[in-house]
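Exercise 3.2. Students should predict the tertiary structure of the chain below and write it as structure tokens, then compare their answer with the key that follows.

Predict this chain's 3D structure.
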Amino acid sequence: MEYEICPYCGEEIDPDEVYEHMVTRHMDEIRKEEFSMLNEMKQQHYELLLDLKRNYPSIFVKFIEELAEEDSEDIKIFCMKELISMREFDKGEKLFREIISRNNKKETWLEYIIMLNKKGQYEKSIETCMEAMRIFDDEKFQARMKRIIEKARARL
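Answer key:
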């Protein structure tokens, strides 16, 4: 009878029992390898996007715009930040408005307000902070909005 050799422990295993052996005896090692591979892929993906952003900005913006069509809020927020970083403020603002219309998360409002400040729209930033303060009754958030308002007023 032919056997398979387990790459983890070197044990000879019946070919019909390889899966069971791996799952029962080596699941921790398999998980570690998978996480390692995922982290490596994540790093490669990041480096690819960074290269695209630096060397082909118009293609990068188009890619981000198409990616923003996904229904995932996390992806949309990532895309908004990237558009803003590329100084595509109108496109970033459009995405922020879309997300804000779908939810009322403090983090989303904060990102929107930061974008307004980066765009130099300090009056709109102040108005948006005041609106967010009416919506969210959270001391830390309120304090942060007040600091943002003070800084925006100083820039007017």
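Discussion points: Residues 11-55 form one domain. The helical segments are 18-25, 27-55, 57-67, 73-85, 89-102, 106-118, 122-135, 139-155.
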